[in-house]
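Researcher: I've got a protein sequence and the SMILES for pyridoxal-5'-phosphate. Could you write out the 3D structure of the bound complex as C-alpha cells? I'd like something to compare against our soaking experiments later this week.
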Amino acid sequence: MQYISTRGGAEPLTYCEALLEGLAPDGGLAVPETMPAVGADLLESWRGLTYPELATEVLALFATDIPRDDLARMCAAAYASFPDEVVPLRSIGGGISLVGLSEGPTLAFKDMAMQFLGQVVEYALARTGSVLNVLGATSGDTGSAAEHALVGKERISVFMLSPQGRMSTFQRAQMFSLDDPNIHNIAIDGVFDDCQNLVKRLAGDLEFKRAQHLGAVNSINLARITAQVVYYFWAWLRATDREGAREVSVTVPSGNFGNILSGFFAKQMGLPIRRLVLATNENNVLDEFFRTGLYRPRAAAETLATSSPSMDISKASNLERFLFELVGRDASRVVRAFGELDETGAIDFTADQPRFVDEFGFLSGSSTHADRLATIRAVHETAGEIIDPHTADGVKVAREHLEEGVPMLVLETAKPQKFAETIREAIGVELEYAPELREMLDAPQHVVDMADDADALRAFIEANALR
Ligand SMILES: *Cc1c(COP(=O)(O)O)cnc(C)c1O
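Model: Sure. Here is the predicted complex with pyridoxal-5'-phosphate in place.
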C-alpha cells in the first residue's frame, strides 16, 4: 500500500515513511492510494478477536510495509495498560450506546491512537536509524496524550508548548507530573494560538527543522487516523450480531475532524455505517459546513472558550481528506479549493451539499453550554451514568438523528473526571479521583516558563534536542 498526497504533487510513500512525515512536501495530506476493502465474510471472521488482535488485522491493511508479527507485538503493547476489553460499550437507553474510548492513561480518546503511534514511530525510527524531536502545541488533551505515549521511548523527545495558566489543574498535572529527561514542558506567556504560531515559525524554518530533527504527532498524522479506524470496526462488531441489526449510526464529538475521518475511512472500507453524525459545540464551523456546503474557518479571536474545550477549534485540518474524496480524488480540484480559501476565506461546496449525506452518510448538529448541562443531567437521571461535556455534545446531537431499528453509537471522547467543574455545575456531584490520579495531582511539576519568543525557544531546543 502506497500513500499519495491530496494535492497530487508528492512522490508516493510507504506507511512508515508517511507517518513520520506530517504534511506532504506539496502541502497536502497522505491518503491511501486505494482504500483497502473489507468484505462481509472477512468482517464476520473478526467477531471473536480481542482488541489488539482486531487492531493487527485492520492496521495490516494499511501498514503493508510492517511484518505482521511486528505489528501484532506493537498492538499488544499499545493497549496493554487498558482494561481487558480495551473499548467497552454501554447502553444509556433510548437506542443509544456509548463507545468507551477513554480508558487509557490520560482519560481521553486520544490515547487510543497515541499509544499505537508511540510504538510505531519508535519502530519506524529504528528502521532508519534516526531520531525525532516532537515539537507541538497543546491546549490540554493532545499534549498529555502525546507525552504519556512517547515517554521512555528511545530516539524520541518531546517539546510541548502550552499557554501559561490556561489549562485545567488536571491537565497541568497530567503533563507536568512526568519526570523524564526527554519530556520538555514549556509554558508560554500567551494563549494557545501564540503557542501554535511559535511551532509554525520553527517548523517553517526548514533548515532548523532538519538540523534539529523536528517533527509533529498532530491530528493529521497517518498513524493516528489509521489506529482510530480500528474502534469503529470494534464497535460495529459489538453492537451487531450475526442475525440482528446490520447497520449502525455513529455520532462523533468533533473538532479537528480527525476522529470522524477515521469513521469515514471505515465506511469507505465497507463497514456498514449508515450515518456519521458530526457534533460540534458553539464553535460550529463543521456543522455549518455539513448543513450548507460552505466551509468558513474562523480566526482564533472568533473562537469561543466553551465548557467542551477540546472542541474549541475553528479550522479542521483533516477536512481536506474528505474533500479529496468528495471531488472524486481529483487533486487539482483540492488545490483550487484551497486557493479559493486563501483568496476569499471560504470554500464553496454548496452545490455538492446534498451528496454529503446521500453518498457519504454525513449529518451534523451543534450544542450549547445549556444543552451540555441538560444532557449530563438527563443521562445521569435516566441511566445513572456521568458523562463528560464533550460526550454530552455527542449525545445531544445523536438524539436529533435517531432512526427506528438503527442502533446509535456515541463515541465517549473523555472521562468526566477531566472536567469536574462542569459536572458539579450540571448535577452538583463532586467527582472522586482514583488513588493513582490523586497521586498525580499531588506530584511535583516539571515545566519551564518562557516568553512568547521564537529565539528563546530555538535556543532551548538546540540545547536539549536528541541527535
Ligand atoms: C480532541 C478531542 C475532540 C475532537 O476530536 P477531533 O479528532 O479533533 O475531531 C473531542 N473531544 C475530546 C475530549 C478531545 O480531546
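Model: The chain has 20 helices and 15 strands. Residues 110-128 form the longest helix (19 residues).
Researcher: Great, I'll pass this along to the crystallography team.
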